[in-house]
Design a protein that fits this description.
The chain has helices at residues 50-59, 71-79, 121-124, 148-156, 167-175, 186-196, 229-237, 241-255, and strands at residues 7-10, 26-32, 62-68, 85-90, 100-101, 106-115, 138-141, 161-164, 181-185, 204-206, 212-220. With 260 residues, the protein is an alpha/beta fold. It has two domains: 7-106 and 213-255, D-Maltodextrin-Binding Protein, domain 2 (3-Layer(aba) Sandwich); 109-212, Periplasmic binding protein-like II (D-Maltodextrin-Binding Protein, domain 2), CATH 3.40.190.10.
Amino acid sequence: MIFFFLVAINFSFFLGDNTFSKTHQRIVKVATLEWPPYTCSDCPQQGIATQPLIEYFQKMGVKVELSFLPWARAIREMELKNFDALWPCWKNDIRQNQLNLTRPLFRSPVVFLRNAQSKKFAEHSSVKALKDLVPWKTGVVKDYGYDDDVMEFLKTHPDSIEVVSDDETNLKKLLLNRIDFAIVDLENYKALVFKKFKKNEAHFFVHPNLAKKYSLYLGFRKDLTEDTKLIFDGLNKDQSFEKAVLKNLKSYENKAPVNL
């Protein structure tokens, strides 16, 4: 990603002994996607995962400026080397970009959605494994880096997939029965239902099979200078990042409840 959200970063900074010089603070230009609740322009502190990332850079004496882009465009910008890092990315988001990944910073619960009002609902219940999806149409977001098994399925069964521009479009097509399944991050799905599809909440059903947790990373361009090693090493040692995301998620869910 996804499908995966995500962020590209353009660095320009001055290094001190163990941090960036506060007297020479530099701006980090960040391009990210709208992927609530993790990263979003209208979320508190711009998302539950973006907030601890910004705080980390602030500790390093670096200011972050966010720009929200469609994910496919963020990928293209990385290929053009217009940015220096991608955030947050699933592992396969970097297959073509060959980025240096931090350790996993948090995890994304990816599920398959169905339309509970579909006339084919009972038939869809027979799906137990990816191979069972072949007769059906599954919605995926363009350039999301799903796990290896899903990526192989997309490659070998192109007639069984529908490529869309974003997760919101995926849910719309599911409501209209133009697709049979939609691959989404569970928390992103719940955020979209709360913000955009509250009246349609009863139509969505989380398929009990095929769910999987994807790790999410910050990916640095490989041709960056050695100066970025301080940030990279620091994030690799930081054990508090996922705890901060989970804490923010709990607070978010209390304000935006969704029934499953």
